[in-house]
Amino acid sequence: MITSLIVAAAENDVIGVDGDLPWHIPGDLRHFKRLTQGHAVVLGRLTHESILARLGRPLPRRTNVVVSRSPHPENTETAGGAGTTAGTAGATGTPETAAGSAAHAGGVRWERSVAEALATAEALERAAGTDEVCVIGGASVYRQALPFVDRVHLTRVHLRVEGDTRMPEGWLEGFEEVSRLDVPAEGPVPAHSFLRLERPPR
Fold first, then answer.
1. What is the spatial distance between Cα 153 and Cα 197, in angstroms, rounded to a whole number?
2. pLDDT at residue 69, as a whole number
3. Residue 150 and residue 137: Cα distance in Å, rounded?
4. Which of 111, 140, 149, 155 is positioned for an S-S bond with 116, CB 3.0–4.6 A?
């Protein structure tokens, strides 16, 4: 089982301002969708609420495992398995991913800690026949999940920006870059790079 952290960060590790991204990069949104569809995603309550505000629903074709210490609704359950909602697999590239999309069709699970959320997400991945849990924010969830992370999918935005949310200092220590795709600036879209970093076997 792989635990991946997915984040877009400026050169100075800023990831947000006033609850939103400091940039708009359509290619990064597609990249995020491709990485996360068909998997369980772990996210904080505020991130979940911001997604609900933008989309009017949780992230589709993913089981959303939300971390919140506050009282929360009942977990979504179906006959297909805990934390899943009936749905149809999308065209996501491979039979395994398509099967994962069917199993991770947009249900919501609530857990009171990052550790509990990761354990729940791993169980959901195994039940779905998939093997990558995706941690998608916000900053507090990233910080608490880092000790458990095996892989980082980083969109490095080649800007230095002001913001009120950033990744922890030294957060990439212990990870090694294994792939990189550089994308030049185009119009209002800043130059950015898609990196994959992995922690050596422990």
1. 7
2. 86
3. 16
4. 111
Residues 6+ apart with CB under 8 A from 138: 15, 16, 43, 44, 46, 47, 165
* Residue ranges covered by each domain of the chain: 2-198
Give the pLDDT confidence of 141-189 residue by residue, as tens digits. 999 999 999 999 999 999 999 999 999 999 999 999 999 999 999 999 9
The burial class, CB within 10 Å (0-12 / 13-18 / 19+), for 185 is exposed
CA distances from 42 to 57, 117, 202 (A): 16, 7, 23
| C-beta separation of 4 from 133 below 8 A | yes
Residue 30 makes CB contacts below 8 A (sequence gap 6+) with none
Q: Does domain 2-198 have CATH number 3.40.430.10?
A: yes
Task: Yes or no: say if 166 and 14 are a contact pair by the CB < 8 Å rule.
Answer: yes
- The packing angle between helices 114-128 and 95-103, to 10°, is 120
Would you report the helix, strand and coil content of the chain in percent, each value rounded to 5?
30, 30, 40
